[in-house]
Design a protein that fits this description.
There is one protein chain. With 130 residues, this protein is α+β, with helices and mostly antiparallel strands. The chain contains six helices and seven strands. The chain has a three-stranded antiparallel beta sheet with strand order 5-7-6. The protein has a two-stranded antiparallel sheet with strand order 1-2. Strands 3-4 form a two-stranded antiparallel ribbon. A hairpin with a 5-residue loop joins strand 6 and strand 7. The mean pLDDT is 91.
Length: 130
């Protein structure tokens, strides 16, 4: 990256990055991480709540994304000593600094969609009765 006409590299956790945006995308890039962060921005959620909000994601992928976000210090995982155990995911202090970034990305996506596509109301999901 260039700062004041000087070339810099970023070294972080054993990786070398050529741009600060590259660093950001290393932590929130991919198909699902920003979606998970979008839902967590309003407050803590349980795994099952996230799974319901993101029906296209598999349980395995959601679990992987949550684990990576937790390892990177973006979200925290709190286990409550209850029967059955309750686990909640929430932003860490460092992760909370991404909320405005995620909201700005969503705003850009909405504007792009309105300009070049259409935004339609989704049908309510049917819940299976046992």
């Amino acid at each position: 990256m260039l700062i004041n006409d000087k070339e810099y590299l970023i070294k972080l956790n054993g990786e070398t990055f050529h741009c600060a945006l590259d660093v950001t995308m290393r932590f929130i890039g991919g198909k699902w991480k920003t979606v998970v962060l979008w839902y967590l921005r309003k407050g803590p959620m349980r795994f099952s709540e996230l799974r319901k909000r993101i029906p296209q994601i598999t349980e395995k992928m959601l679990s992987l994304q949550l684990r990576e976000l937790e390892q990177d210090g973006i979200i925290s995982r709190t286990v409550y000593a209850e029967v059955p155990p309750r686990v909640e995911y929430a932003f860490t202090e460092q992760g909370a600094s991404l909320i405005q970034v995620v909201e700005a990305l969503a705003h850009w996506g909405r504007e792009k969609s309105r300009a070049e596509g259409e935004v339609i109301e989704a049908e309510k999901r049917k819940v299976k009765q046992k």
